[in-house]
Amino acid sequence: MSEKDLNTLFDEAFANAQLIPQESVPQDMQLVLYGLYKQASSESTSRIHYQNPQDLRNAFKLNAWMQVKHLTANEAKEKYIEIINDLLKERNL
Fold it and tell me: What residues have CB less than 8 Å from 91, skipping those under 6 apart?
């Protein structure tokens, strides 16, 4: 698959993700998707800084991203697309 095709599919998956009710996706899966999205669309995790280090929500988000930092951007896009497509099928969307 060409990178252009992958980017198009990734953009479509991101748009389709907005159709899935957030409350229907378990929080751990939301974090996985967040991490994959950030890895797919960001250059480096070294730029991350938070205003409040006590912020638990951001700590979980950072951890989700760190869990997938070993993936290339294209690998993260592929996994993100796969999960979104599976969620759409489960919900018949």
Answer: 20, 21, 24
CB atoms within 10 A of CB 44: 7
User: Quick one: tokens of 19?
Assistant: 């159709």
Q: What is the 3-state secondary structure (H, E, C) of 18-69?
A: CCCCHHHCCHHHHHHHHHHHHHHHCCCHHHCCCCCCCCHHHHHHHHHHHHCC
- Per the CB < 8 A criterion, the answer to whether 4 and 75 are in contact is no
For 56-72, what is each residue's pLDDT tens digit?
888 899 999 999 999 99
What pTM did the predictor assign? 0.85
